[in-house]
Design brief:
By secondary structure, the chain is an alpha/beta fold. It has helices at about 5-15, 35-45, 65-70, 75-80, 95, 115-120, 125-140, 150-160, 190-210, 215-230; strands at about 1-5, 25-30, 50-55, 90, 140-145, 170, 235-245, 260-265, 270-279. It folds into two domains: about 1-170, HUPs (Rossmann fold), CATH 3.40.50.620; about 185-275, Pantoate-beta-alanine ligase, C-terminal domain (Pantoate--beta-alanine Ligase, Chain: A,domain 2), CATH 3.30.1300.10. Bound molecules: pantoate.
């Protein structure tokens, strides 16, 4: 495994690697956990070479304190990646990715006016800026993204379509802790007590799955909100039950298409997201 910080060098190395196989890419912001490692292992298994980027992207943080507090530990990340078979780790500086400010404004229409897009203005524009730059450097055949960030996945698919990029986007299942809590870099910021209580989020979603169809969509969203808010450590920011393609709220179970409940919940100062597909 080789650590690379220069985009010019990475491009050269990957031009060589591409001659003997496909490139599988996992973009991350570091603070790696088992969820990330499962993406990397899959990228390595399905391609000639696996590449991971570790870059805390400033343009996707709408809250400066969130950017400051975001966990960073490159040494620990590199240790975790050793056993995955990943060939290159790209850990560039901010100047390397943004030699000049990125002023591009992407248009994702109704995909970005709901949920995370509504509550974190500018977030998805920043995600599209950095992922398009990383794709331009790595030129992956396949890129792997976790389904926990369900809306991010839809945005990245839309971006790939808009820019006509020849990359296959591979969605990967959510990896959970034994308690059910969805793995997230932000879990590192939780106290042990908060971490235990945060498991109520996924437990509530799992119970909601059994109630779908028995309660109306509105009742179920209300039930999820109330149950999570009953826990003194947790405060719901939103609960939305949406169509999994359009991401628009659904009003009845009889509507066509797969439905998914997406939630954002504050646990102390840490914002967590999770979701469950009703199928
Ligand atoms: O999901 C993430 O960790 C980030 O949004 C990503 C895709 C690496 C872009 O910075």
């Amino acid at each position: 495994m080789e650590l690379v910080t220069s985009k010019v060098l990475l491009k050269q190395l990957l031009d060589q690697a591409r001659q003997s196989g496909t490139i599988g890419f996992v973009p991350t912001m570091g603070a790696l956990h088992r969820g990330h490692l499962s993406l990397v292992e899959r990228a390595v298994a399905e391609n000639g070479a696996g590449v991971v980027s570790i870059f805390v992207n400033p343009t996707q943080f709408n809250d400066p304190n969130d950017l400051l507090r975001y966990p960073r530990n490159l040494d620990a990340d590199l240790k975790l990646l050793q056993s995955t078979g990943c060939r290159y780790v790209f850990a560039p500086s901010v100047e390397e990715i943004y030699p000049e400010p990125d002023t591009r404004v992407f248009q994702f229409g109704s995909l970005e006016t709901v949920m995370e897009g509504k509550h974190r203005p500018g977030h998805f524009n920043g995600v599209a800026q950095v992922v398009s730059r990383l794709f331009d450097i790595v030129k992956p055949d396949r890129a792997y993204f976790g389904l926990k960030d369900f809306q991010q996945l839809a945005i990245i698919r839309a971006m790939v379509q808009q820019l006509q990029l020849p990359v296959e986007i591979v969605p990967c299942e959510i990896v959970r802790e034994t308690s059910g809590l969805a793995m997230s870099s932000r879990n590192q910021l939780l106290s042990p007590e908060e971490r235990e209580n945060a498991a109520v989020i996924s437990q509530t979603l799992l119970k909601a799955h059994r109630l779908a169809g028995k309660l109306s969509v509105g009742e179920l969203a209300g039930h999820i909100t109330q149950t999570i808010n009953q826990n003194p450590f947790l405060t719901v920011e939103y609960v939305e039950i949406v169509n999994d393609i359009t991401l628009q709220p659904v009003s009845g179970w009889e509507e066509p298409g797969t439905k998914i409940a997406c939630v954002a919940v504050w646990c102390g100062k840490v914002r967590l997201i999770d979701n469950i597909v009703f199928n």
